[in-house]
TrEMBL record:
InterPro entries: Transposase_InsH_N (IPR008490). The lineage of its organism: Bacteria, Pseudomonadati, Pseudomonadota, Betaproteobacteria, Burkholderiales. This is Transposase. Residues 62-149 form the Transposase InsH N-terminal domain. Pfam families: DUF772 (PF05598).
Length: 228
């Protein structure tokens, strides 16, 4: 007798299991069951497909369910969205220059992730979006099932957007507006050195001389190395 594989760590009372043979005979009954709980359809003793009602699927697919109340990224998302609300013309123009299919607002939030986590390579942001549903929500996705952009266009767009002086200022203002981010926490390692270096390259942006420089970056070359 073939040993039945474990489905997952999903609580057994939250799903309904049925074989293909049984489903053929009792389809309508199991579709009715699927209105209240997912039905796993087995083939040769192994889970094959699922029958899920639309409300249950939307509940499981919606990224909002992965957002813990009070998390630092929730406050930061509110801060940057408040700033982006006044930058419609700029964001629309940058969106036309993007090649990944993402809105420039999403790319700007992705770059903010790179800054607050001090990631040296934008590919690591793209990699994180594969498995970190909180990051996906922060960037601006609504559903887990939404397709992510290809890596190279994503990196191209992030480099282009992060090189714009006003985007640099938007990110800087968002961090200043997020009071809990003024001091680094165990999770956030804000690369203020990068922002300082980038802002000093653009004479039209006000630079605070007392702004802390953290992260080991110095000069133009060091500042841009993180965003490429």
């Amino acid at each position: 007798m073939k040993k039945r594989r474990q489905r997952s760590d999903v609580p057994p009372d939250s799903i309904q299991g049925v074989s293909m043979q049984t489903l053929d005979k009792e389809l309508s009954r199991h579709v009715e069951i699927a209105r209240t709980k997912p039905v796993s359809v087995d083939k040769y003793g192994v889970p094959w497909v699922w029958i899920v009602s639309h409300p249950l699927w939307m509940q499981a697919d919606h990224l909002k369910s992965f957002v813990p109340e009070g998390h630092g990224l929730v406050n930061l998302r509110e801060a940057i969205d408040s700033t982006l609300a006044y930058e419609g013309l700029l964001m629309n123009e940058l969106t036309r220059q993007c090649t990944s299919g993402l809105d420039a607002r999403m790319v700007t939030r992705a770059w903010l992730l790179q800054v607050v986590y001090s990631l040296s390579d934008p590919r690591r942001v793209r990699e994180g979006l594969v498995y970190n549903m909180l990051w996906r929500w922060f960037v601006g996705y609504q559903l887990r099932s939404e397709q992510l952009p290809e890596i190279e266009p994503f990196v191209h767009d992030l480099n282009r957007v992060s090189a714009h002086p006003h985007v640099i200022d938007i990110v800087h203002r968002s961090l200043n507006n997020g009071a809990m981010l003024h001091a680094d926490t165990e999770e956030f390692r804000i690369n203020r050195g990068l922002l300082h270096a980038l802002r000093t390259q653009h004479v039209d942006l006000p630079v605070r001389l007392d702004e802390p420089v953290v992260g080991g970056l110095s000069g133009e070359r060091g500042g841009r190395s993180m965003a490429r």
